[in-house]
Design a protein that fits this description.
- Helix content is 38%, strand content 23%.
- The protein is an alpha+beta fold.
- The protein has a two-stranded parallel sheet.
- Helix 1 (17-29) links the parallel strand 1 (6-13) and strand 2 (35-44).
- The protein is flat and about 45 Å long.
- The two termini are 22 Å apart.
């Protein structure tokens, strides 16, 4: 089955985390082998608001690391 590349980000303490996991598992069962789920262990909903990319203020250094990795992954994903 030809399914699109899929990249899912979820935070451990996000109310939408379980939905992300359910979607990932359903897509795998449907035959999507080109899917990736990245879980931010310890992260929470709207984690990006605490990174240096929001209002140019770094409130949580781990958020900066995760968002930097996110941008790198998206750039790689789009190649």
């Amino acid at each position: 089955m030809n399914m699109p590349r899929t990249l899912i980000y979820a935070a451990e303490h996000d109310p939408l985390r379980d939905d992300s996991i359910l979607f990932y598992n359903a897509a795998k069962r449907a035959g999507n082998e080109n899917i990736e789920l990245i879980m931010w262990s310890g992260g929470f909903h709207i984690e990006q608001l605490f990174s240096k990319y929001w209002a140019n203020l770094s409130l949580m250094p781990q958020s900066d690391i995760w968002i930097d990795q996110y941008f790198d992954k998206i750039l790689d994903f789009l190649k």
